Amino acid sequence: MKKLRVLIVGSAFAADLHADAYSRIGEKVQIVGISGRDLDRVHALAERYGFTDYKAYDDYDQAIAECDCDLVDICLPNFLHHEVTIKALNRGRDVICEKPMATTVEDAQDMVDTAARLDKRIYYAEDWLFAPAFRKAMEILESGKVGRPLYVRARECHSGSHSPYAQKIEYCGGGSMIHLGVHPVCFLLAMKNNEWAELVAMTSGGKEDNLVHHGMEGEDWAGAFIRFKDGTFATLEANYVTVGGMEDMMDIYCEEGCIHVDLSFSGPIRAFSIPGLDYTVEKAEVTTGWSTPAVDEKQNLGYCGEIEHFVDCALKGIDAEVGLRGIDGLETMKVINLIYKSAREGISIRNES
Ligand SMILES: NC(=O)c1ccc[n+]([C@@H]2O[C@H](COP(=O)([O-])OP(=O)(O)OC[C@H]3O[C@@H](n4cnc5c(N)ncnc54)[C@H](O)[C@@H]3O)[C@@H](O)[C@H]2O)c1
């Protein structure tokens, strides 16, 4: 069977999530190149996941120009997604792009247009759509056994980004809404086929007008209400003021039932440690006392499923599922942009399209 040849660009946090996922499907994929500014980190990543026949690059331009691959997986800070995607598409490669698509709607639009013109695909890495618990929730909804959804409350929140690029809007496009809210926004748009009707939002003001992160230009608290065209209401939250580990949660209230999903804290294990465990859940500040250590966190957060889906699609030369295509990343950017506009101008915004 032909294997998909992948060049991973970036060797930090997101690259680690993807590399783990590739290492689980070695029969379908071959990592032929890894690029990162620090070659020690590149080799450490490869060693961690058992990649051997790869070429290491410390420059992504050189990597894209020289590496003989089918797909470029972009695990770089947000401000580089546009430039590197365009370069990879022009080199004739399909692309996996981490969230958010770009730092501006214009750049995201350019990425989608370029892919269409060159007949290449952008796979938009929204892991929530492959989180097994969220997929199970969708299966229950589709079974009709809880009735029509009336109201959804969804959030991703934690205590702050580990990335230095998250501090400046120029590098990342905003604050907690573009970094974290991007997940529930994309998930709900996919659930409702992008058919939203009206939104209204509020955010903290950045810097001194933030609740906690006064060095950060973007907001550290954001909330939005969205009404969809089918009448479903949603509350979306994204903040950096949540201590105790990352919260990825969704509550779906329906005509004849409800569904509650907690991706981070609902594992089967409870542990108590006086000195503290090595690791419990993403972004937990302390690991002492009682905890619910995550069991295969990367699988449960959806990274493994999304990567396998992209590999399968790229091998067949087809688009990803709804929610995971370049145009879905673009639609998510458009809605996030309007959430920021609503918060800035204190207005409710209707979808005229
Ligand atoms: N889906 C998720 O849940 C999830 C989780 C974490 C990160 N991400 C996304 O993944 C992307 C990468 O984030 P990250 O957390 O891995 O770390 P990061 O943004 O700090 O950096 C990633 C990599 O980019 C390299 N890099 C930075 N600036 C560069 C430059 N000018 N030239 C070349 N290389 C450069 C760094 O050396 C590092 O290897 C971001 O877009 C982020 O939003 C997604």
Give a summary of the structure in a few sentences.
The protein is an alpha/beta fold and about 350 residues long. About 35% of the residues lie in helices and about 25% in strands.
SSE layout:
Blueprint: E1 4-9, H1 13-23, E2 29-35, H2 39-49, E3 55-57, H3 60-66, E4 71-74, H4 78-90, E5 94-98, H5 105-118, E6 122-125, H6 132-143, E7 149-157, H7 169-172, H8 176-191, E8 196-203, E9 221-228, E10 233-239, E11 247-254, E12 257-262, E13 271-273, E14 289-291, H9 297-300, H10 303-316, H11 326-345, E15 349-350
Parallel strand pairs: 1-2, 1-4, 2-3, 4-5, 5-6, 7-10
Antiparallel strand pairs: 7-11, 8-9, 8-15, 9-10, 11-12, 13-14
Helix pairs in contact: 1-10, 4-5, 5-11, 8-11
Nicotinamide-adenine-dinucleotide (NAD) is lined by residues 10-15, 36-37, 60, 75-78, 98-99, 125, 127, 163, 165.
What does this 3D model show about the protein?
There is one protein chain. This protein is an alpha/beta fold and 353 residues long. The chain is 36% helix and 24% strand. It has helices spanning 13-23, 39-49, 60-66, 78-90, 105-118, 132-143, 169-172, 176-191, 297-300, 303-316, 326-345; strands at residues 4-9, 29-35, 55-57, 71-74, 94-98, 122-125, 149-157, 196-203, 221-228, 233-239, 247-254, 257-262, 271-273, 289-291, 349-350. The strands form three sheets. Strands 12-11-7-10-9-8-15 form a seven-stranded mixed β-sheet. The protein has a six-stranded parallel β-sheet with strand order 3-2-1-4-5-6, with helices on both faces. Strands 13-14 form a two-stranded antiparallel ribbon. Helix 1 (13-23) crosses helix 10 (303-316). The structure holds nicotinamide-adenine-dinucleotide.
